[in-house]
Amino acid sequence: MKRSTCGRALGTAAVSIVSVLAMSFTGVAAQADPASAPTEQALAELIAAGRKAAPVAGGSGSACTSGSGAGSGNGSGNCYGGSGSSSGSSGGFASDTVGYGPPKTSWVEAFGYGLTNPDAAPPGANDWKCKPTAEHPRPVVMLHGTWMNAYNGFAYMGQPIKDARFCTFTFNYGRANPVEGGGLGSVLPGVMGTGYIQDSAKQLAMFVDRVLAATGADEVDIVAHSQGGSMANWYTKFEGGAAKVRNLITYGATHHGTSLDGIGALGRAINNLGIDVLGFVEIFVGHAGIQQTIGSDFVNKLNANGDTVSGVDYTIVGTRYDEVTNPYELTFLRAGPGATVQNITLQDGCEQDLSDHLMMMYSPRALSIALRTLDPAGHPQLECASNPWLIGGGGR
């Protein structure tokens, strides 16, 4: 059945509005050589004393809903818990996907589809009857980033990873409305990953346990974008994930926070003078957005005892054109005892890949890095293709 003219107009308007919001949030990607960025040390000195992030309450709470009651619910069915506070200003939940969306090679198109189909799974994901093989013994859990969802995070990568004979799974985490601290952007149905990252890590812990139970595997591999990477890192350190994750592959992850092209660093510096600028920004971007700025309590605790945990192998991918996680080197990790780290700049050996923060999830080279990490024998070569800014997926 054809959509009505009104429906088409509404969909077009929604895509246009969110595209503007996304561009406002991420900035304009460089189309020439990126400007030199301040060092991590310089930014750290600028924001030596940061704004205190609101704590995640303890105790027991109801599944899938939260607000006035304190605690984190265990979740049941297709919900994976939430966290409330006495003020009702935190909360949220995670959920399963419903149905499948089509494969996409363009981030803009995928983002628009994800807005109007917020619960769709990316192609290739969530076959709960899939069983790992001896060649591929670990299922792959794919994690979207802030203001995104399971579909538009992996509309490009999902099917190729499945086609490489991996069992792949994903879900929508950090679903928080404005009252629960998700920010004004969360009124749009496809905008997720906005609640407290600690809460999202608890949701991930429950989802991983479910994947392990369904597949019979002992460990998973994780492929994560942006907040998904730092959230997975928190999961390995504080939610029991170290024993359940073999490979952690991240793209543009905010492991050491971000300056957001200097905006976050400036805001925290102003906050240090006693003016709550970040609190005002948080109203718009949500809890998770502010937690990912350099010097936040979340970032400081995440790295207080080192970047890594023993037993996990890390593949960390950054792009020189990242306007969200910047300076982009902040995504890289230093290996601690019992861990291995491979830090990769996307453009090394492939200068024609102009992927920025969002487009890297639609980069043929980024996909080939994931496949090589998951299956070095079966996918030993890295692909190099032009990946235009804004379009992604090799421009196809």
Q: Can you put this structure into words, describing what you see?
A:
By secondary structure, the protein is α/β, with parallel strands linked by helices. It is 31% helix and 11% strand. It contains twelve helices and ten strands. The protein has a six-stranded parallel sheet, with helices on both faces. Helix 6 crosses helix 7. The longest helix is centred in the first third of the chain and has 22 residues. The protein is globular, with a radius of gyration of 19 Å. The N terminus is likely disordered.
SSE pattern, N- to C-terminal: HHEEEHEHHEEHEHEHHHHEEH
**Gap from first CA to last CA:** 28 Å
Largest sheet report: 6 strands, parallel
Number of helices: 12
The strands making up the biggest β-sheet line up spatially as: 5-4-7-8-9-10
Rounded average pLDDT:
78
- Envelope shape: globular
Secondary structure category:
alpha/beta
Portion of residues in beta strands equals: 5-15%
Total strands: the figure is 10
State the oligomer. single chain
Helix content: 25-40%
Please mark out the parts with pLDDT under 50 across 5 or more consecutive residues, or reply none: 1-89
Q: Over all CA atoms, what is the radius of gyration?
A: 19 Å
